[in-house]
Amino acid sequence: MEHFDVVIIGAGPSGACAGALLRKAGKKVLCVEKQHFPRFSIGESLLPHCMQFLAEAGLEPALQQQAAAHGFQFKNGAAFLKNDFRTAFDFTDKFSPGPGTTFQVKRAAFDKILADAAAEQGLQIRYGVTVEQVDITGAAQALLQVSDDNGRQYQLSAGFVLDGSGFGRVLPKLLDLEQPSDFPVRQASFCHIRDNISDPRFDRNKILITVHSSLPDVWFWLIPFSDGSASLGVVGKQQRFDASRSAADNLWQHVQQTPELAQLLAQAEPVNEAQSLTGYAANVRSLHGNRFALLGNAGEFLDPVFSSGVTIALRSAAMAVPLVLRQLNGEQPNWDTEYSKPLRKGIDTFRAFVTAWYDGRFQDVIFSRQRQAKVTAMISSILAGYAWDQANPYVAEPERRLNVLRELCLDAE
Ligand SMILES: Cc1cc2nc3c(=O)[nH]c(=O)nc-3n(C[C@H](O)[C@H](O)[C@H](O)COP(=O)(O)OP(=O)(O)OC[C@H]3O[C@@H](n4cnc5c(N)ncnc54)[C@H](O)[C@@H]3O)c2cc1C
């Protein structure tokens, strides 16, 4: 049986980042990835906070070098559209320190760039290898049963296991850690398009979030790439979608019901088959246990609306690795107070904003004509991913501050 200091499940952003950081510390690390890269993944709009973790892990140079060749789009903010009201947040004008720009990426290429860069730093990645079973009851090591594409089954042992399996949710399923999300079951239908947009008001440096013209809890993402293509998706409660119709029909029907967006996309042509994802919000009872921790989507996933997924995935990797190193060194880090609670603090900031988006409170703020520069910078910070910066009052007390701000916006209107 082969033994590793750490086995990572999944070579997505969280797995690649954790692997690169562990290699920097000289650890013997194996990453097992069920699929073969490049493979499609959703989640194409990064937040600037991501760049901090990619730099820490030594993965940013590869991204910067290859961004243009893969059609990745420079991104400096988020634009919002509701009926004929347009507004935008510039991430370079933000409250928290840190990078203010990032990219909109095609995930197949992005994930491969990160995984290859981590492999160059010595991370062993085995593609086409699926984790089937784990035994984390051992005092000295964890055991994993894996199978490869040829049906060969074998065991691995590890001093620690990091689960970066995303929606695969390997350890939550195998260890019975799953807990339902507080959010209702929502669906997303999406595809890539050649957007053919000529409207000068459309800023390719920003993701565009459009609210459906008559259903305020239904919204669209339009994520432009630098090669003239874009990712388009619609999100709403599952009952808003007609199960008897295709993903493409559901997507374009909602677009047609939203005149400003329909007009913007009048010349758009799909470049791949639309697909749908349903019920992606997920949670767990615990983000850690004996010799394991959950990263990124294998832990909690909220909602796509503020593009927080990859940021949380990378941040979780950057927070977990120093604790793994200490544990491998014979210490006993307190995973609850040093990992779970601080990680969840930022997730809870996003949760407050996501909840307020769907119940309309945050939309009242975003689509208000009243803007105060300092408050706008604080909101920009959160939209740029800095949801852990306690110096930002909207992180320290998101719920109360949002409610007060909304009242101020409504009064001023
Ligand atoms: C509709 C929608 C839109 C989104 N939009 C955005 C966005 O704009 N911006 C953003 O930041 N996030 C977005 N997200 C979230 C984003 O997709 C995820 O948060 C992000 O990919 C999580 O990264 P990860 O590394 O945790 O997992 P993943 O990227 O999912 O990677 C997990 C890897 O584990 C592998 N794996 C799974 N099971 C096994 C197994 N048994 N053995 C071995 N390997 C396994 C998988 O093959 C996969 O490669 C969106 C999500 C949804 C649902």
UniProtKB/TrEMBL annotation:
Q: Which InterPro entries match?
A: FAD-bd (IPR002938), FAD/NAD-bd_sf (IPR036188), Flavin-dep_Halogenase_NPB (IPR050816)
Q: Where is the secretion signal located? A: none
GO molecular function terms noted in the UniProt entry = FAD binding
Superkingdom per UniProt: Bacteria
- FAD-binding domain location is 4-331
Please report the name of this protein according to its UniProt entry. Answer: Tryptophan halogenase
